[in-house]
């Protein structure tokens, strides 16, 4: 991290010995070690939390992709089914209209034939 070699550590120890003194140097080293340990634990906790957040975001993105993949085919099938039903409805309505007009045509023809036949019967009876 700091790229400190053997000679740099020796120089730091010599300066600390001269500044602090030999009596308080072990306490200073202990305190410095405790602070470095706390700093490392804090940094590791932050890294782990960031990693968890990244994993959660990746899982959310994967879930959204899966949800879209599920929705698209369902919507597509529903759209195709709706189109098929519309076509079927139109075909059925056309067949009904054709049958109705054919029935009405035959009905009119039968009425016309029965009306033509009825006056003849009235003439025969007279």
TrEMBL record:
GO cellular component, one term: membrane
UniProt-annotated location(s): Membrane
Disordered: region residues: 74-126
Entry GO MF terms: protein transmembrane transporter activity
Keywords for the protein's UniProt record, in alphabetical order: Cell membrane, Membrane, Protein transport, Translocation, Transmembrane, Transmembrane helix, Transport
Biased composition, class Basic and acidic residues, residue ranges: 83-107
Broad class of the protein's primary localization: membrane
Biological process terms in GO annotation: protein transport by the Tat complex
Pfam families (UniProt xref): TatA_B_E
Topology term for the membrane: Single-pass membrane protein
NCBIfam families named among the record's database cross-references: tatB
Protein name: Twin-arginine translocation protein TatB
Species this chain originates from: hydrothermal vent metagenome
